[in-house]
Amino acid sequence: DVAIKKSKELNFVNVYNDHVSQHSSTTCRREVVHHQFERYRSEKCKNKRMRSFLYFGELKFLVRLDVEKLKLLRVLDLEANLGPFASNGDLIHLRYLRLEGFSLRVFDIAAIISKSRFLQTLDADHVCFIYDTIDLRKFTSLRHVIGKFVGELLIGDAANLQTLRSISSDSWSKLKHELLINLRDLFIYEDSNKSKERRVTVSWASLTKLRSLRVLKLVADRRYLSLESEEAVRSMDVISPSLESVTLVGITFEEDPMPFLQKMPRLEDLIFENCDYWGGKMSVSEQGFGRLRKLKLFINRLDELQIEEEAMP
Protein backbone atom coordinates (compact mmCIF):
# COMPACT_ATOMS: atom_id res chain seq x y z
CA ASP A 1 0.00 0.00 0.00
CA VAL A 2 2.83 2.39 0.83
CA ALA A 3 4.56 1.65 -2.49
CA ILE A 4 1.35 2.23 -4.47
CA LYS A 5 0.64 5.46 -2.58
CA LYS A 6 4.14 6.79 -3.22
CA SER A 7 3.99 5.75 -6.89
CA LYS A 8 0.75 7.67 -7.33
CA GLU A 9 2.26 10.76 -5.73
CA LEU A 10 5.14 10.63 -8.22
CA ASN A 11 2.80 9.98 -11.17
CA PHE A 12 4.66 6.72 -11.71
CA VAL A 13 1.55 4.55 -11.83
CA ASN A 14 -2.21 4.98 -11.87
CA VAL A 15 -4.38 2.02 -10.89
CA TYR A 16 -7.85 2.48 -12.30
CA ASN A 17 -9.83 0.39 -9.84
CA ASP A 18 -10.05 3.01 -7.15
CA HIS A 19 -13.72 3.79 -6.44
CA VAL A 20 -12.72 7.24 -5.18
CA SER A 21 -11.09 8.24 -8.45
CA GLN A 22 -13.58 9.44 -11.06
CA HIS A 23 -11.23 10.09 -13.95
CA SER A 24 -8.23 8.43 -15.55
CA SER A 25 -4.91 10.19 -15.14
CA THR A 26 -3.77 12.68 -17.77
CA THR A 27 -0.16 12.76 -16.60
CA CYS A 28 0.75 9.29 -15.36
CA ARG A 29 2.83 7.22 -17.76
CA ARG A 30 1.71 3.79 -16.50
CA GLU A 31 -1.90 2.73 -16.04
CA VAL A 32 -3.56 -0.47 -14.88
CA VAL A 33 -7.27 -1.11 -15.43
CA HIS A 34 -8.99 -3.86 -13.48
CA HIS A 35 -12.68 -4.78 -13.90
CA GLN A 36 -13.76 -1.22 -14.73
CA PHE A 37 -13.07 -0.91 -18.41
CA GLU A 38 -16.62 0.18 -19.27
CA ARG A 39 -16.22 3.36 -17.23
CA TYR A 40 -12.61 3.81 -18.33
CA ARG A 41 -13.57 3.51 -21.99
CA SER A 42 -16.35 6.07 -21.62
CA GLU A 43 -13.74 8.66 -20.65
CA LYS A 44 -12.08 8.09 -24.05
CA CYS A 45 -8.65 7.49 -22.56
CA LYS A 46 -7.37 11.07 -22.50
CA ASN A 47 -3.88 10.27 -21.23
CA LYS A 48 -1.65 10.97 -24.23
CA ARG A 49 1.52 10.56 -22.14
CA MET A 50 0.85 6.94 -21.34
CA ARG A 51 3.84 4.63 -21.84
CA SER A 52 2.55 1.39 -20.30
CA PHE A 53 -1.01 0.02 -20.24
CA LEU A 54 -2.17 -3.19 -18.54
CA TYR A 55 -5.75 -4.42 -18.57
CA PHE A 56 -6.96 -7.55 -16.82
CA GLY A 57 -10.33 -8.60 -15.58
CA GLU A 58 -13.55 -10.25 -16.69
CA LEU A 59 -13.53 -11.50 -20.25
CA LYS A 60 -16.94 -10.01 -21.02
CA PHE A 61 -15.43 -6.57 -21.56
CA LEU A 62 -14.36 -5.61 -25.05
CA VAL A 63 -11.22 -3.52 -25.30
CA ARG A 64 -11.17 -0.63 -27.75
CA LEU A 65 -7.92 1.23 -28.30
CA ASP A 66 -7.34 4.45 -30.18
CA VAL A 67 -3.73 4.68 -31.29
CA GLU A 68 -4.04 8.38 -32.04
CA LYS A 69 -4.22 9.03 -28.28
CA LEU A 70 -1.46 6.57 -27.30
CA LYS A 71 1.48 7.56 -29.48
CA LEU A 72 4.02 7.26 -26.63
CA LEU A 73 2.90 3.79 -25.57
CA ARG A 74 5.82 1.39 -25.06
CA VAL A 75 4.19 -1.56 -23.28
CA LEU A 76 0.72 -2.93 -24.08
CA ASP A 77 -0.56 -5.94 -22.15
CA LEU A 78 -4.18 -6.99 -22.76
CA GLU A 79 -5.87 -9.83 -20.92
CA ALA A 80 -9.42 -9.78 -22.22
CA ASN A 81 -11.67 -10.42 -25.15
CA LEU A 82 -10.25 -8.22 -27.82
CA GLY A 83 -12.51 -5.73 -29.52
CA PRO A 84 -12.31 -3.13 -32.31
CA PHE A 85 -9.03 -1.39 -32.92
CA ALA A 86 -8.89 2.23 -34.04
CA SER A 87 -5.91 2.43 -36.37
CA ASN A 88 -5.40 6.18 -36.73
CA GLY A 89 -1.66 6.77 -36.33
CA ASP A 90 1.25 4.50 -35.49
CA LEU A 91 2.52 3.01 -32.25
CA ILE A 92 6.10 3.83 -33.18
CA HIS A 93 7.31 3.64 -29.56
CA LEU A 94 5.68 0.30 -28.76
CA ARG A 95 8.30 -2.28 -27.79
CA TYR A 96 6.28 -4.97 -25.98
CA LEU A 97 2.89 -6.33 -27.03
CA ARG A 98 1.15 -9.15 -25.19
CA LEU A 99 -2.31 -10.41 -26.11
CA GLU A 100 -4.42 -12.89 -24.21
CA GLY A 101 -7.99 -13.75 -25.11
CA PHE A 102 -10.32 -16.07 -26.92
CA SER A 103 -12.37 -13.89 -29.28
CA LEU A 104 -9.69 -13.39 -31.87
CA ARG A 105 -12.13 -13.34 -34.77
CA VAL A 106 -13.57 -9.97 -33.70
CA PHE A 107 -10.14 -8.42 -33.39
CA ASP A 108 -7.83 -7.52 -36.25
CA ILE A 109 -4.55 -8.57 -34.70
CA ALA A 110 -2.65 -7.84 -37.89
CA ALA A 111 -3.77 -4.19 -37.69
CA ILE A 112 -2.23 -3.44 -34.32
CA ILE A 113 0.97 -5.28 -35.23
CA SER A 114 1.31 -3.35 -38.48
CA LYS A 115 1.23 -0.10 -36.49
CA SER A 116 4.13 -1.20 -34.28
CA ARG A 117 7.08 -1.41 -36.66
CA PHE A 118 9.70 -1.00 -33.90
CA LEU A 119 8.24 -3.82 -31.84
CA GLN A 120 10.75 -5.98 -29.98
CA THR A 121 8.50 -8.56 -28.29
CA LEU A 122 5.26 -10.01 -29.63
CA ASP A 123 3.71 -12.44 -27.15
CA ALA A 124 0.44 -13.96 -28.36
CA ASP A 125 1.05 -17.37 -26.82
CA HIS A 126 -2.21 -17.23 -24.86
CA VAL A 127 -4.35 -16.52 -27.91
CA CYS A 128 -5.84 -19.77 -29.23
CA PHE A 129 -4.72 -19.57 -32.86
CA ILE A 130 -3.70 -16.78 -35.22
CA TYR A 131 -5.14 -17.50 -38.64
CA ASP A 132 -4.27 -14.14 -40.22
CA THR A 133 -1.15 -13.61 -42.27
CA ILE A 134 1.30 -11.77 -40.03
CA ASP A 135 3.80 -9.72 -42.01
CA LEU A 136 6.90 -8.81 -39.98
CA ARG A 137 9.29 -8.32 -42.88
CA LYS A 138 9.86 -4.62 -42.08
CA PHE A 139 10.35 -5.22 -38.36
CA THR A 140 14.13 -5.09 -37.89
CA SER A 141 14.08 -4.73 -34.08
CA LEU A 142 12.23 -7.97 -33.32
CA ARG A 143 13.72 -10.12 -30.57
CA HIS A 144 10.90 -12.43 -29.45
CA VAL A 145 7.95 -13.69 -31.53
CA ILE A 146 5.70 -16.08 -29.61
CA GLY A 147 2.29 -17.39 -30.63
CA LYS A 148 0.35 -20.13 -32.39
CA PHE A 149 0.76 -18.81 -35.92
CA VAL A 150 -1.47 -21.03 -38.04
CA GLY A 151 -1.59 -18.50 -40.86
CA GLU A 152 1.47 -17.46 -42.83
CA LEU A 153 4.22 -15.79 -40.81
CA LEU A 154 6.51 -13.54 -42.86
CA ILE A 155 9.86 -12.49 -41.39
CA GLY A 156 12.55 -10.48 -43.15
CA ASP A 157 16.02 -9.39 -42.06
CA ALA A 158 15.54 -10.15 -38.36
CA ALA A 159 19.15 -10.29 -37.23
CA ASN A 160 18.12 -9.48 -33.64
CA LEU A 161 15.50 -12.24 -33.42
CA GLN A 162 16.20 -14.60 -30.51
CA THR A 163 12.90 -16.46 -29.98
CA LEU A 164 10.54 -17.85 -32.62
CA ARG A 165 7.69 -20.02 -31.28
CA SER A 166 5.87 -21.37 -33.17
CA ILE A 167 6.11 -21.27 -36.96
CA SER A 168 4.74 -23.73 -39.51
CA SER A 169 7.18 -25.74 -41.60
CA ASP A 170 5.71 -24.06 -44.68
CA SER A 171 6.46 -20.55 -43.39
CA TRP A 172 9.87 -21.68 -42.13
CA SER A 173 10.88 -22.96 -45.57
CA LYS A 174 10.33 -19.47 -47.04
CA LEU A 175 12.65 -17.64 -44.63
CA LYS A 176 16.26 -16.67 -45.24
CA HIS A 177 17.73 -18.80 -42.47
CA GLU A 178 21.24 -17.43 -42.82
CA LEU A 179 19.94 -14.02 -41.64
CA LEU A 180 18.71 -15.39 -38.30
CA ILE A 181 22.16 -15.20 -36.79
CA ASN A 182 21.00 -14.65 -33.18
CA LEU A 183 18.07 -17.08 -33.07
CA ARG A 184 18.29 -19.15 -29.88
CA ASP A 185 14.85 -20.68 -29.33
CA LEU A 186 12.92 -22.24 -32.24
CA PHE A 187 9.66 -24.20 -32.44
CA ILE A 188 8.58 -25.54 -35.84
CA TYR A 189 5.41 -27.54 -36.39
CA GLU A 190 3.91 -29.32 -39.35
CA ASP A 191 0.47 -28.04 -40.35
CA SER A 192 -1.71 -31.14 -39.97
CA ASN A 193 -4.67 -29.32 -41.55
CA LYS A 194 -2.99 -29.52 -44.94
CA SER A 195 -2.99 -32.66 -47.04
CA LYS A 196 0.18 -34.73 -46.84
CA GLU A 197 0.99 -33.82 -50.43
CA ARG A 198 1.01 -30.09 -49.59
CA ARG A 199 2.97 -30.32 -46.35
CA VAL A 200 6.53 -29.03 -46.33
CA THR A 201 9.18 -31.03 -44.51
CA VAL A 202 11.91 -29.44 -42.41
CA SER A 203 15.41 -29.75 -43.78
CA TRP A 204 18.06 -30.12 -41.10
CA ALA A 205 20.42 -28.30 -43.42
CA SER A 206 18.38 -25.14 -42.79
CA LEU A 207 18.92 -25.58 -39.05
CA THR A 208 22.70 -25.88 -39.34
CA LYS A 209 22.77 -22.24 -40.47
CA LEU A 210 21.53 -21.14 -37.04
CA ARG A 211 24.85 -20.87 -35.24
CA SER A 212 23.34 -19.47 -32.02
CA LEU A 213 20.43 -21.92 -31.70
CA ARG A 214 20.14 -23.44 -28.21
CA VAL A 215 16.60 -24.81 -27.97
CA LEU A 216 14.82 -26.65 -30.78
CA LYS A 217 11.40 -28.29 -30.91
CA LEU A 218 10.05 -30.04 -34.00
CA VAL A 219 6.45 -31.28 -34.10
CA ALA A 220 5.21 -33.39 -37.00
CA ASP A 221 2.29 -35.64 -37.87
CA ARG A 222 4.00 -38.97 -38.46
CA ARG A 223 6.36 -37.30 -40.90
CA TYR A 224 9.58 -39.06 -41.85
CA LEU A 225 12.64 -37.09 -40.78
CA SER A 226 15.70 -38.29 -42.63
CA LEU A 227 18.84 -37.05 -40.94
CA GLU A 228 21.95 -38.78 -42.26
CA SER A 229 20.63 -38.84 -45.81
CA GLU A 230 21.05 -35.07 -46.18
CA GLU A 231 24.29 -34.51 -48.03
CA ALA A 232 24.77 -31.11 -46.40
CA VAL A 233 25.03 -32.60 -42.92
CA ARG A 234 26.23 -36.16 -43.47
CA SER A 235 29.87 -35.13 -43.87
CA MET A 236 29.90 -32.82 -40.82
CA ASP A 237 31.79 -33.91 -37.72
CA VAL A 238 29.96 -31.33 -35.59
CA ILE A 239 26.34 -30.30 -36.14
CA SER A 240 24.58 -27.36 -34.49
CA PRO A 241 27.40 -26.67 -32.00
CA SER A 242 25.29 -24.41 -29.75
CA LEU A 243 22.22 -26.67 -29.40
CA GLU A 244 21.49 -27.61 -25.78
CA SER A 245 17.93 -28.96 -25.97
CA VAL A 246 16.18 -30.94 -28.73
CA THR A 247 12.56 -32.10 -28.57
CA LEU A 248 11.15 -34.23 -31.39
CA VAL A 249 7.40 -34.92 -31.41
CA GLY A 250 5.40 -37.18 -33.73
CA ILE A 251 8.33 -37.93 -36.03
CA THR A 252 8.97 -41.24 -37.78
CA PHE A 253 12.57 -42.44 -38.14
CA GLU A 254 13.68 -45.01 -40.68
CA GLU A 255 17.24 -45.02 -39.39
CA ASP A 256 18.85 -44.71 -35.98
CA PRO A 257 18.97 -40.96 -35.16
CA MET A 258 21.48 -41.35 -32.32
CA PRO A 259 24.70 -41.21 -34.41
CA PHE A 260 23.44 -37.98 -35.95
CA LEU A 261 22.40 -36.41 -32.64
CA GLN A 262 25.72 -37.35 -31.04
CA LYS A 263 27.38 -34.81 -33.32
CA MET A 264 25.88 -32.03 -31.18
CA PRO A 265 28.61 -31.37 -28.59
CA ARG A 266 26.57 -29.19 -26.19
CA LEU A 267 23.39 -31.27 -26.12
CA GLU A 268 21.99 -31.60 -22.58
CA ASP A 269 18.31 -32.48 -23.08
CA LEU A 270 17.05 -34.96 -25.69
CA ILE A 271 13.34 -35.75 -25.78
CA PHE A 272 11.38 -38.04 -28.11
CA GLU A 273 7.60 -37.79 -27.72
CA ASN A 274 5.19 -40.10 -29.53
CA CYS A 275 7.72 -40.90 -32.26
CA ASP A 276 8.04 -44.04 -34.41
CA TYR A 277 11.13 -46.03 -35.31
CA TRP A 278 11.24 -48.93 -37.74
CA GLY A 279 14.83 -50.04 -37.14
CA GLY A 280 14.17 -51.94 -33.91
CA LYS A 281 17.43 -51.03 -32.16
CA MET A 282 19.08 -47.71 -31.27
CA SER A 283 22.66 -47.35 -30.05
CA VAL A 284 24.55 -44.69 -28.13
CA SER A 285 28.30 -45.07 -28.58
CA GLU A 286 31.05 -44.47 -26.03
CA GLN A 287 31.29 -40.76 -25.15
CA GLY A 288 28.41 -40.19 -27.52
CA PHE A 289 26.67 -37.57 -25.38
CA GLY A 290 29.31 -35.84 -23.30
CA ARG A 291 26.90 -33.39 -21.62
CA LEU A 292 23.54 -35.13 -21.74
CA ARG A 293 21.53 -34.72 -18.53
CA LYS A 294 18.06 -35.70 -19.65
CA LEU A 295 17.01 -38.45 -22.06
CA LYS A 296 13.29 -39.09 -22.51
CA LEU A 297 12.14 -41.79 -24.91
CA PHE A 298 8.55 -42.38 -25.97
CA ILE A 299 9.15 -44.20 -29.24
CA ASN A 300 6.74 -46.72 -30.70
CA ARG A 301 8.25 -49.96 -32.07
CA LEU A 302 11.62 -49.38 -30.41
CA ASP A 303 12.76 -52.85 -29.36
CA GLU A 304 16.15 -52.12 -27.82
CA LEU A 305 18.28 -49.18 -26.70
CA GLN A 306 21.96 -50.05 -26.38
CA ILE A 307 24.08 -47.62 -24.35
CA GLU A 308 27.81 -48.26 -24.17
CA GLU A 309 29.90 -47.48 -21.11
CA GLU A 310 30.74 -43.81 -20.59
CA ALA A 311 28.28 -42.86 -23.28
CA MET A 312 26.81 -40.20 -20.98
CA PRO A 313 28.02 -38.26 -17.93
TrEMBL record:
Highest taxon above the source species: Eukaryota
GO biological process: defense response
Keyword Repeat attributed: yes
Pfam name, any one: LRR_14
Domain Disease resistance R13L4/SHOC-2-like LRR: start-end pairs: 50-313
Keyword tags: Repeat
Protein name: Disease resistance protein Rpp13 variant
Organism: Arabidopsis thaliana
Taxonomic classification: Eukaryota, Viridiplantae, Streptophyta, Embryophyta, Tracheophyta
